[in-house]
DNA sequence: GCGTTTGGGGTACCT
DNA sequence: CCCCAAACGC
């Protein structure tokens, strides 16, 4: 065992100082299995990292003997950062990463045993979808009857149950076809040397399963296996864990999770794994030492917020059970706001945000959460009009942008020309006169000969089409040759130029942004290369010095970078700097915390989402989602719902979410809209019966009600836009004229170009700066 | 082969 | 309402 070098902590005592008794007990558990039930905001990550440091510092394990698994790259990075600060070690020795990242690391080491080409590539979800489409085409199946998305999730679902096509039960002709598609898809992937996300896991599992000597090696090596967010593991991940560290061995399996925060059932997460773990690893209440540790001390939220969370989640019956507590005092009650319409909800939100801002709350400490992305739009436009900075999470991420995927496709072809997904993506982009007909022929040839598209070119008749395809092959070969010996950023620069991507985007009207993104890709590669040389474990290039697992491959820098791009799609917009209100789905908010949280759209049908109710555990999972939303808030939590809401182009009349009924009266303050005191009840002059807050709200659904608030007066945060007269046709604008724009608000005309009413008009907006607008499109209203 | 139009569909999106 | 994908026309 390697010696333990001195660390930044004089002694374990220093390391453990500041832990509460539960945390202390968890961190210092003697070897053996353990389940840490870590409530929201209970210091879960701290316990996990401190445990690792404690194990190493006290000489119980060498750094190489630790494996720590997380779900997201973000969590893995955070753990590494903390470990890096606490341990003066090369982090490369630690096997810390995501399930998929670690499996990938394993497969790069054991590619031969796994039956993969050394240069295998990873398919992301888009790639997988296009691969499925090709399979369907080759099998002459309509993608109406077999929706590619459905097929894709069917295949992923099978793999997560460790089921190969041969092991599936065929109970109908439809299932027969599904299984045939699955089988053809697998053959295609194998042919092309690519693996999807689920395959990384399953292939690793199968290799470990089929090779006892390899399994024994890793079991011996990893004396301590730690798993974060265990409630989100699927069947296969748990089975994988049991292979690596089976129950009844001297290995320590330390899993941390919160069954109340399991919100990924829709993609295979199995809360039941937690209960199975207690049974299979023999971890139960009332033992000494206590191997089932509950972290119930919450360091995040004020008392009333926690009361709401506890009360709500107690409605879920199948739980391991725990109750959060805090020393922070009760704080403010949770506020519930019923708005007449979605527009009113946003107006109220804007006033609240403005008030918080005046009271000194930083904007980035304010979050607006919603169940589904469709709800973000109204909030966004409201904030935009009010000139309040905001940031929306979700949406396209860096490595998912079309131009980036194109560049990566060329790079992947340099590594592995058989990668047909990449081939199809760029064979005719930029255009090279290779059309659908040619590619159809090529795909037929590939199908008939059972080879990749690249390999099928030589099987085509010698004609013009083939010449063009050959030209593409020559281009790739040429790029590959010229890339040899260059550094990564230079390779990418050359490929962007040599492939014609650069020229194509230069010619495109809106190509400027794409070119900038490609420039960013070169920068990212540069940063990646330098980071890697510093020895940070971005990439799994571990040289296994130990017997039993000889290094079968060291990954090149390009290859590592491609892996990085596939496994980590990148932030959607990492622009830090000025403070902004955070907008995101509840799913995206998991693990985050904010001083003030607004949960909008708390309505039946939206939350709980109607489509979630089909699943037997659907409502419970929705409730867990609500629990996650509530526990994001530190000091103030506001929940709102609207009676009328415009969604998907039509107005829906929703009743408040049933979850609101589950909040304890004493911890909640029901707000009425500011102007409801004008005589009419908020629900509108008895038109919906006596549906007050305590009443039979749900039964009172659907009757449209006069919009008390909107009709009274426009909110001060917004100019009276609905009430402004429509632009008189033929109204001539003049320089200096004040105008109103529905999106940019008030402004003043600076210049006019062309002849009205088809002129281009330059306007200086009060909140959004100067803009050129097309008069025919932008309905500018003179003020 | 390429660009525009029409029409379908819309829970959450980690790896 | 808004986005993406297939279908249509040049």
Explain the overall architecture.
By secondary structure, the protein is an alpha/beta fold. Helices cover 40% and strands 14% of the residues. The protein is built from 28 helices and 21 strands. Strands 9, 10, 11, 12, 13, 14, 15 and 16 form an 8-stranded mixed sheet that branches. It has a 6-stranded parallel sheet with strand order 3-2-6-7-1-8, with helices on both faces. Helix 16 packs across helix 24. The radius of gyration is 29 Å and the shape is globular. The N and C termini lie far apart (79 Å). The structure holds a DNA duplex (15 and 10 nucleotides).
Tell me, rounded to a whole number, the average pLDDT.
Answer: 82
How many angstroms separate the termini? 79 Å
Tell me the number of strands: 21
Radius of gyration (Å): 29 Å
Write a compact overview of the structure shown.
The protein is an alpha/beta fold and 783 residues long. It contains 28 helices and 21 strands.
Key words describing this protein structure:
alpha/beta; 28 helices; DNA-binding
Explain the layout of strands and helices:
Blueprint: H1 12-16, H2 21-27, E1 34-38, H3 44-57, E2 66-70, H4 73-86, E3 95-98, H5 99-109, E4 121-123, H6 125-138, H7 148-160, H8 173-192, E5 194-196, H9 197-210, H10 212-221, E6 224-227, H11 235-244, E7 252-257, H12 272-280, E8 292-295, H13 303-313, E9 334-341, H14 342-358, E10 366-370, H15 376-386, E11 390-392, H16 402-415, H17 420-426, H18 436-449, H19 453-456, H20 464-483, H21 488-498, H22 501-507, H23 511-533, H24 557-567, E12 581-585, H25 586-589, E13 594-599, H26 618-630, E14 633-647, E15 650-653, H27 658-661, E16 668-671, H28 708-712, E17 738-741, E18 745-753, E19 760-765, E20 769-774, E21 781-782
Helix pairs in contact: 2-3, 3-4, 5-9, 6-7, 6-8, 9-11, 13-26, 14-15, 16-17, 16-20, 16-24, 20-21, 21-23, 22-23
The chain binds a DNA duplex (15 and 10 nucleotides) through α5, α9 and α25.
């Amino acid at each position: 065992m390697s010696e333990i070098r001195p660390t930044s902590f004089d002694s374990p005592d220093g390391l453990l100082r500041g832990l509460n008794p539960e945390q202390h007990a968890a961190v210092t558990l003697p070897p053996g299995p353990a389940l840490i039930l870590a409530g929201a905001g209970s210091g879960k990550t701290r316990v996990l990292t401190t445990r690792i440091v404690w194990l190493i510092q006290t000489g119980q394990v060498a750094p190489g003997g630790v494996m720590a698994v997380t779900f997201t790259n973000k969590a893995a990075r955070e753990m590494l950062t903390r470990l890096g600060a606490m341990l003066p070690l090369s982090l490369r020795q630690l096997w810390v990463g995501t399930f998929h990242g670690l499996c990938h690391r394993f497969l790069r080491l054991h590619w031969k045993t796994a039956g993969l080409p050394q240069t295998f590539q990873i398919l992301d979800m888009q790639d997988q979808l296009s691969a499925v489409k090709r399979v369907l085409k080759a099998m002459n199946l309509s993608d109406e009857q077999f929706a590619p998305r459905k097929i894709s999730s069917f295949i992923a679902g099978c793999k997560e149950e460790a089921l190969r096509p041969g092991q599936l039960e065929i109970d109908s002709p439809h299932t027969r076809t599904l299984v045939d598609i699955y089988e053809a898809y697998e053959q295609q992937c194998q042919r092309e040397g690519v693996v999807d996300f689920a395959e990384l896991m399953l292939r690793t599992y199968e290799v470990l399963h089929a090779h006892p000597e390899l399994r024994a090696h890793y079991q011996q090596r990893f004396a301590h296996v730690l798993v974060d967010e265990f409630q989100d593991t699927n069947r296969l991940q748990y089975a994988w864990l049991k292979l690596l560290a089976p129950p009844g061995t001297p290995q320590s399996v330390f899993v941390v999770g919160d069954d109340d925060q399991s919100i990924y059932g829709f993609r295979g997460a199995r809360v039941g794994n937690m209960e199975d773990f207690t049974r299979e690893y023999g971890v139960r209440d009332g033992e000494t030492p206590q191997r089932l540790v509950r972290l119930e001390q919450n360091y995040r939220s004020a008392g009333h917020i926690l009361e709401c969370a506890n009360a709500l989640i107690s409605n879920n019956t199948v739980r391991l059970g725990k109750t959060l507590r805090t020393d922070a005092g009760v704080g403010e009650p949770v506020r519930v706001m019923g708005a007449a319409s979605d527009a009113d909800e946003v107006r109220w939100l804007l006033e609240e945000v403005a008030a918080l801002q005046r009271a000194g709350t930083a904007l980035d400490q304010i979050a607006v959460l919603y169940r589904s992305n469709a709800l973000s739009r109204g909030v966004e436009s409201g904030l935009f009009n009010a000139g309040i900075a905001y940031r929306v999470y979700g949406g396209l991420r860096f490595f998912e942008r079309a131009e980036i995927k194109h560049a990566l496709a060329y790079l992947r072809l340099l590594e592995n020309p058989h990668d047909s997904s990449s081939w199809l993506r760029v064979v005719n982009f930029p255009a090279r006169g290779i059309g659908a007909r040619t590619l159809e022929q090529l795909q037929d040839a590939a199908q008939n000969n059972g080879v990749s598209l690249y390999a099928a070119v030589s099987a085509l008749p010698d004609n013009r089409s083939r010449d063009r395809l050959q030209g593409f092959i020559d281009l790739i070969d040429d790029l590959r040759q010229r890339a040899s010996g260059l550094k990564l950023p230079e390779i990418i620069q050359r490929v962007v130029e040599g492939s014609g991507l650069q020229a194509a985007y230069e010619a495109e009207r809106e190509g400027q942004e794409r070119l900038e993104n490609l420039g960013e890709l070169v920068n990212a590669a540069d940063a990646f290369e330098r980071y890697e040389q510093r020895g940070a474990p971005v990439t799994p290039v571990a040289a296994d010095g130990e017997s039993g697992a000889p290094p079968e491959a060291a990954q090149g820098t390009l290859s590592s970078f491609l892996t990085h791009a596939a496994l980590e799609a990148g932030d959607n917009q990492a622009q830090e700097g000025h403070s902004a209100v955070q907008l995101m789905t509840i799913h995206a908010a998991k693990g985050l915390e904010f001083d003030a949280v607004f949960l909008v759209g708390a309505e039946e049908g939206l939350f709980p989402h109607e489509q979630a109710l089909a699943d037997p555990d659907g409502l419970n999972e929705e409730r867990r989602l609500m629990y996650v939303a509530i526990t994001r808030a530190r000091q103030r939590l506001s929940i709102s719902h609207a009676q009328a809401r415009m969604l998907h182009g039509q107005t829906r009349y929703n009743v408040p979410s049933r979850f609101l009924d589950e909040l304890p009266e004493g911890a909640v303050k029901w707000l009425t809209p500011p102007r409801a005191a004008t005589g009419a009840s908020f629900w509108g002059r008895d038109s919906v019966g006596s549906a007050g807050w305590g009443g039979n709200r749900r039964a009172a659904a659907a009757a449209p009600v006069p919009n008390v608030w909107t009709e009274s007066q426009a909110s001060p945060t917004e100019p009276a836009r609905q009430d402004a007269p429509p632009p008189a046709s033929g109204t001539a604008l003049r320089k200096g004229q004040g105008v109103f724009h529905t999106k940019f608000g008030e402004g003043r005309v600076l210049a006019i170009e062309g002849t009205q009413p088809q002129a281009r008009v330059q306007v200086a907006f009060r909140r959004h700066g100067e803009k050129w607008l097309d008069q025919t499109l932008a309905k500018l209203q003179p003020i």
